[in-house]
């Protein structure tokens, strides 16, 4: 028996795979052994450890997913595969819905056919849009402002409705800005995320940019939740273990810091950790960027072993080490 990680060759998915392997080694529970399903459109074959099966297929291919579930004796799924770029989703809405909504529906159909009854879904803070509260909780109203955010909320609805119809055990994890590295050979290769953008700029001798310095925040720059990818992976595994054990979980959980960091604070930490002194280029606001999005992780701390085990300096240092190794 195994757990399938869709998108398991990606940045976050690969960390979840390593966390599952750690859990097998720590507990001796071989039912947590991972198998990866990934179409490698943005993932990396080299992120999949030796000995972990890799099925090269898309979640929109129901037949391929069903065959993989049956072949590998899958009992649960951690679903991370999807198109994850909110800004680009505005230009490519149909592609976003195909990958994230149709893909999730096809995955659930394949799971039902194969008798797989548990799923942990990678959702997003984008479901909240621009909240009017200082700290988001699971009770905060959802109001997504991009096709990406809408697609993630619809994914949650699909799980909810399939649970009502078939008894599917499920939970969805909403999270924010995932950063850092838990393993030096795993790095964030996204062309849209703040950390790789800043580190790429410094490595190539360019000056990182801050978009917007006149927000109603202490230093005028946007405040966001930044969570370490290794901490995130631990809670995905905790959710899988809970579902496998038949424990009741909430329908959704926020994996948040509770306080957040400003973009200026991130830049200052990057300069301190890397030893590269720089003054960021200041640019106007980007349309649609809210001043502050920070979430409470109290419910996840109670149920999913969620906690912030890494400081801002830890996050930057691990990301920088992985970045330099990848660039070597």
From TrEMBL:
The gene is galE. The lineage of its organism: Bacteria, Bacillati, Actinomycetota, Actinomycetes, Micrococcales. Belongs to the NAD(P)-dependent epimerase/dehydratase family. Pathway: Carbohydrate metabolism; galactose metabolism. Its EC number is 5.1.3.2. PANTHER family: UDP-ARABINOSE 4-EPIMERASE 1, UDP-GLUCOSE 4-EPIMERASE. This is UDP-glucose 4-epimerase. Keywords: Carbohydrate metabolism, Isomerase, NAD. GO terms for molecular function: UDP-glucose 4-epimerase activity.
